[in-house]
Design a protein that fits this description.
Length: about 425
């Protein structure tokens, strides 16, 4: 009712204003009228949106989220892959795998707030030619929460990811990251190039380049203010994320996600302390952003083929602001726009992203794990078999007959815990 009356007043004012301009300045009346009326309409829209938000905030039910005791079926769907648990870096980590472990490893790193499910389409699409593995980073999804928050630091997460690659029996991987997962991916490319055969990063440049952009005052002030709010406030960001039954995820993903996909996100981040762990990971790296000089000072020499994808509608920093810096630091890098996509481009338009990824991966010969192992004189050995697919988080050792009972309820596949052992030459 109030909005209708306000629009009627604006319309009446427009008629009177145009008539006055037609008398005084007939040649400029349309431009001035459109400018003034546009400003008034914008102000009315902002006021209306604020009133709508205020009405929602005053409702007690808006701040009470729906309890979610059981995961939606899509999280356990076998079409995405098999759920595994593995001990790495003194942590029990969860990941989902698809394809054969004899193929080259393609490792996916999610962003914030996110978890393995963000890579569901890619897990399935590339399983024919690669061993696709989507990791829940420490403290996210079903991975164990670190005892100390310092584990969330970029350097520690990078070491954990590299240790995971080794534990899976691989010398290197094709590394794929999105958002904050891309920040971690860039760090691994800089510090551990021997663990990366190729890489595909999406959405964000490296932390070192972001620091350079900050020194040049390129990062928008509103972005810095939002990040500062997350780093200072303790419980308010969590309350806001839970408001409207986790409406934050509807806003981020609703335009391109199915209802079961939204429910998967809401279930995962409604679990105890899930959002608190996200904030802890963010804060541990936010402080370092302003006091620590990242990657380029101690960067190792590497000419790794790389692909950087940006959503066309992801406008928080224009690509031309930092593309010269990226070309200078990463010479073997190809940059591509993905049209009509934003922050979650790999979910918004997976077909286009898959096509671009395949074009990039097909430009050079795919390395063969067997030949690579023979060239490096490495022996691969199976040590432990554990964790059935549909047991989800239940571990079994090889000496435990419980696995035989478990096989009745799942496919009976066992998780291979692999290590590599260097063969030393015999010297006379």
């Amino acid at each position: 009712m109030m909005m209708g009356q306000l629009e009627q007043l604006i319309h009446d004012y427009q008629v009177r204003y145009i008539n006055s301009l037609q008398i005084a300045h007939p040649r400029v009346h349309s431009v001035m009228a459109n400018l003034v009326v546009g400003c008034l309409l914008r102000a009315a829209t902002v006021c209306g949106q604020f009133l709508q938000c205020l009405i929602k905030w005053l409702q007690v039910s808006y701040w009470i989220s729906t309890p979610r005791a059981h995961p939606p079926d899509t999280l356990n769907s076998p079409k995405w892959g098999r759920h595994r648990q593995i001990h790495v870096h003194n942590l029990k980590l969860h990941y989902v795998e698809n394809g054969s472990s004899n193929n080259p490893l393609m490792l996916f790193l999610h962003g914030v707030p996110d978890f393995w499910y963000t890579w569901r389409y890619q897990l399935k699409e590339f399983a024919k030619d690669y061993w696709t593995v989507a990791l829940d980073l420490p403290g996210f999804g079903l991975s164990e929460e670190p005892r100390d928050a310092i584990t969330y630091r970029m350097s520690n997460l990078a070491r954990a990811v590299c240790e995971l690659v080794e534990t899976l029996g691989k010398t290197d991987c094709i590394l794929v990251g999105n958002g904050c997962g891309a920040l971690l991916g860039w760090h691994i490319v800089n510090q551990y190039p021997e663990r990366v055969a190729k890489y595909i990063m999406m959405g964000l440049p490296s932390v070192g380049i972001l620091q350079q952009l900050q020194e040049q005052n390129v990062i928008p002030l509103n972005v810095l203010l939002k990040l500062a709010f997350l780093s200072i406030s303790q419980s308010l960001p969590i309350k806001l994320a839970q408001a409207g039954d986790y409406a934050m995820f509807t806003k981020l993903l609703g335009a391109f996600s199915k209802p079961q996909d939204l429910e998967a996100y809401k279930y995962t981040f409604s679990q105890p302390n899930a959002l608190a762990r996200v904030l802890a990971a963010f804060r541990e790296n936010w402080n370092d952003f302003f006091v620590e000089e990242f990657e380029f000072g101690v960067r190792k020499t590497a000419t790794i083929p790389g692909l950087y994808l940006v959503g066309e509608n992801d406008h928080w920093i224009r690509l031309d602001e930092y593309s010269p810096l990226m070309v200078d630091k990463y010479q073997a890098l190809e940059t591509r726009f993905v049209p009509r996509t934003g922050r979650y481009l790999h979910q918004e338009d997976p077909k286009t992203v898959h096509r671009i990824m395949k074009e990039f991966l097909g430009k050079t010969d795919t390395h063969l794990p067997v030949e690579r192992a023979q060239a490096n004189n490495v022996e691969t050995k199976v040590v432990v078999k554990e964790v059935c697919e549909k047991c989800y988080a239940t571990e079994h050792k090889t000496i435990d007959k419980q696995h035989d009972e478990c096989a009745k309820n799942c496919d009976g596949q066992e998780h291979r815990h692999i290590f590599t052992k260097q063969k030393l030459p015999i010297c006379s």
